[in-house]
Amino acid sequence: MAILEAVATVPYTDAQAPGIIALAVVGIISFIAILVLAVVMMVKIYKSAKYGNRTLPQTHIGPYFASLFVANFIQSIGSILNIDWLIQWGTVYEPACVIQGSAKNIGNVGTALWSLIIAFHAFDVLFLRRKQKRTTLWATVIGTWIFIFCVDLFGPVILEKPAQGPFFGVSGNWCWITSNYPRARIFLEYMFMFISAFFCAIIHSIVFLRLRGNLGGNGWRNIHFRRIPRSERWALKISRDEVDGKMYKVAMQLMWYDPLLCRCVVVSNVVYRYPLIYTTLIIPIAVARFVDFSGNFVPF
Predict the structure, then answer these.
(1) Which of the two residues, 265 and 75, has the higher pLDDT score?
(2) Cβ atoms of residues 152 and 102 within 8 Å
(3) How far apart are CA 45 and CA 65, in angstroms?
(4) Fewest Cβ atoms closer than 10 Å to its Cβ: which of 106, 107, 194, 227?
(5) What angle is formed at CA 277 by the lines to CA 273 and CA 279, rounded to 5 degrees?
(6) What are the C-alpha distances in Å from 183 to residues 8, 171, 178, 186?
């Protein structure tokens, strides 16, 4: 019976169709936005390299953001595949179903991990001020992507059992990790999302407070918190050294406004409150999914 649930066709109702259409449309918009953003970034990189516009020390933020975009891109492909189910007016177990389940898993885990890595990198650069090594960059990029694909393959290669049916299959109105593997849903996806959201919020807040002047000290040494009265903020701005001044401007954007950075040169003034929005969005989604997993009805 469990196997049949993972491979059975789940027909859509007229009430569900608008929601599936919305998911597909958002996937298409995300797909196009990432492509446009990639073109804009490449143009900015070319102009920066051509005119030698480097105002800050080099960091690894560019490649890390590029990896985040790749994860979002894969995630959008998973949403676009909902068009197939709309055409067939129901979720059907077929190769496209397995691809969608895998794409969703890679996209969600990748987005969570790269968001966390960007947070740790910002902390390393803006708080600890450690020199960035190129070997660390490549080890992080290659190692993280290998880990992401290992997480995605762990289910169908290691966990999948004939008696339980396919690992990626029909999961309600789309394809994902089937209900026959409930623990895998948590430990191979949602766990990464919650960990990322938790630590991103903490790390970005610490860095923001450090550069705002509320946290004093040198690196981890002699860290202390201080309240800065409004009347004394002008003095803090004057006494802030050149590195602190530049890093403060970057942090104000990176923590809450996140410009696209490459080689630590600001290449876009496009603002999107990524860490805050990421945490805000995944919590209600995850809660709704857990309620659904427990067998309770969740309106679509």
Answers:
(1) 75
(2) yes
(3) 13
(4) 227
(5) 130
(6) 21, 15, 11, 5
SS3 letters across the chain: CHHHHHHCCEECCCCCHHHHHHHHHHHHHHHHHHHHHHHHHHHHHHHHHHHCCCCCCCCCHHHHHHHHHHHHHHHHHHHHCHHHHHHHCEECCCHHHHHHHHHHHHHHHHHHHHHHHHHHHHHHHHHHCCCCCHHHHHHHHHHHHHHHHHHHHHHHHHHCECCCECCEEEECCEEEECCCCHHHHHHHHHHHHHHHHHHHHHHHHHHHHHHHCCEEEECCEEEEECCCCHHHHHHHHHHCCHHHHHHHHHHHHHHHCCCCEECCEECCCCCCCHHHHHHHHHHHHHHHHHHHHCCCCCCC
Asked if 213 and 226 count as a contact pair (C-beta separation under 8 A), the reply is yes
With beta carbons less than 8 A apart as the criterion, state whether 286 and 193 touch: yes
Dihedrals φ, ψ of 169, to 5°? -165, -160
CA angle at residue 66 from 143 to 190, to 5 degrees?
Answer: 60
Whose tokens are 């396919």? That residue is: 166
Nearest to 110 by CA among 81, 61, 152: 152
Q: Could you give the CA distance from residue 268 to residue 251 in angstroms, rounded to a whole number?
A: 15
Task: For 162-216, write each residue's pLDDT tens digit.
Answer: 888 899 999 888 899 998 998 999 899 989 988 988 888 888 777 777 766 666 6
Instruction: Quote the CA–CA distance of 127 and 2 in Å, as a whole number.
Output: 51
Q: Which residue has the tokens 């694909």?
A: 149
pTM for the full predicted model: 0.80
Over 70: is that where the pLDDT of 238 sits?
no
Write the single-letter amino acid at 266: V
